[in-house]
Every structure is written in C-alpha cells, then in structure tokens.
C-alpha cells in the first residue's frame, strides 16, 4: 500500500498528509539521482543563524555493499528484520558545536527539520522512507569513526514501495492500520499553558 493519506481535521498540503513511514520495501535499486535530490532538500532546511548543523552519512547498497552492511549491522534486530530490502541507509547526525566551538543548543532541532525535508522529498519522488531511532549509536560511531561533536540522531532507510504481505503478519497489519495522531487540544495551547497539564 503506497497511498495512505492522513485523515486530518483541517485540510493540509497533500505532500504532508501523504507522507508516512512504511516498512514494506521492494528489492530494486533506488537511483543515485533520487538520493541526491533528498539530500538537496535537506540542505535547504532552515536553521538558527543558518548554522546548518545537519550531517548525513549515506550508504547505497548498489554502490558500496560492504559499507551498507556495516551500517545495517548497527540497526537493532527488529529494524534489521524488516529492512532486508532497504536500498539506501542515511545516518542523520547533528553537529553539536558552533563554528566557534560553543555548544549549539538548536543543533538537534535544526537537524530534525532537515531530516523531515529529506523524508518529504523521498515521498514526493514516490519512494518509501522510514526514520528510525532504533540503532546502536555507539556501534555506528565506532564503525565509521564519527567525531565526538556529532550526535547520531537516527537512521533513515529508503526503498521503492513493496508488498505488505511479504512482511511478518503483525507488521503487515500495521501497514494497513488507520493512521492516528494525538488530538489538536493535546498538542497546541492558545494563549496560555493549560492548568490541567501543570
């Protein structure tokens, strides 16, 4: 299932409503040009003081299978189980220091914005992309000699959409389950913080 638009309370742009995190992947290559377009979208994300703290380490299965497998090995076992047909892995890192060596308090926030731009571009290209926090960040850091100033945020897997029936039954069911989010009143407060959440 490739088309699962969110049932929103207020109309939003179809690109945003349509983006979701599938697990059913097809075992066929993703074009390098599509990978570059995703990274270009991320490059133009907003950031405080235009610091651009995001960094990406990209692994394309068809380009360097050995590096891809090393990165794949840092995923937790659950994520390895459904990513067998992933074609691209993109590690998302945040540079926690400014150009002057001070701590950048907005680094992770800004990096998240860049990652979202990347995910939206993947969706716009008809690709399946799924961001995962389930990886061994220390193992990834050691495997690829990542300097201490860069915080490993997540791993994004990318592929063409596949058949959900190839997934284990529980995951196949989740591919078709209704999408849900917290209600607006739980996430947005107008004018003041509600006493009920104090």
TrEMBL record:
This is Nitroreductase. Pfam families: Nitroreductase. The keyword Zinc-finger does not apply. One of its GO terms (molecular function) is oxidoreductase activity. It comes from Caballeronia insecticola. Residues 16-159 form the Nitroreductase domain. Belongs to the nitroreductase family. InterPro entries: Nitroreductase (IPR029479), Nitroreductase-like (IPR000415). Keywords: Oxidoreductase.
């Amino acid at each position: 299932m490739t088309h699962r638009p969110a049932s929103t309370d207020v109309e939003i742009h179809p690109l945003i409503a349509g983006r979701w995190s599938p697990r059913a992947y097809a075992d066929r290559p993703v074009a390098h040009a599509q990978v570059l377009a995703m990274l270009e979208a991320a490059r133009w994300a907003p950031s405080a003081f235009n610091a651009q703290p995001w960094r990406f380490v990209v692994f394309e299965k068809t380009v360097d299978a050995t590096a891809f497998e090393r990165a794949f090995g840092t995923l937790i076992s659950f994520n390895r189980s459904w990513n067998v047909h992933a074609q691209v892995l993109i590690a998302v890192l945040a540079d926690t220091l400014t150009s002057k060596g001070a701590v950048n308090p907005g680094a992770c926030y800004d990096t998240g914005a860049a990652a979202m731009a990347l995910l939206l571009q993947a969706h716009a290209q008809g690709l399946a992309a799924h961001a995962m926090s389930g990886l061994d960040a220390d193992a990834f850091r050691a495997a690829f000699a990542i300097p201490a100033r860069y915080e490993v945020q997540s791993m994004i897997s990318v592929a063409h959409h596949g058949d959900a029936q190839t997934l284990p039954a529980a995951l196949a069911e989740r591919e078709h389950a209704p999408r849900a989010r917290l209600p607006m009143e739980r996430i947005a407060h107008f004018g003041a913080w509600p006493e009920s959440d104090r």
